[in-house]
Amino acid sequence: MAQFKPRQGPKLPAPPALDVAPQNLRAPEIAPSVAVDGRSLRATGRTKQLATRVREDFYDDLKVYAAKHHLKIVEVLEQGFKLLTEKKLEN
Questions:
Q1: What's the predicted TM-score (pTM) here?
Q2: pLDDT at position 32
Q3: How many domains is the chain built from?
């Protein structure tokens, strides 16, 4: 087993007295009821991966359009597919 030396250097000062300490130290600790992290807030429900090969000019145009409209590439594809299926239903 490793042998550790006692800590060298200045000692920490004593904690402040309770009458000087902030009021939040006297309050009970309350944990949040539901933990919400950033990942769950960004969840989109997309679980399947779609990989395909496209021409470079199409990819560039798609990426520029998505960036201009503050969309993800997949959102542009989803909206385009939705419009195509609606158009097919009209005919």
A1: 0.55
A2: 67
A3: 1
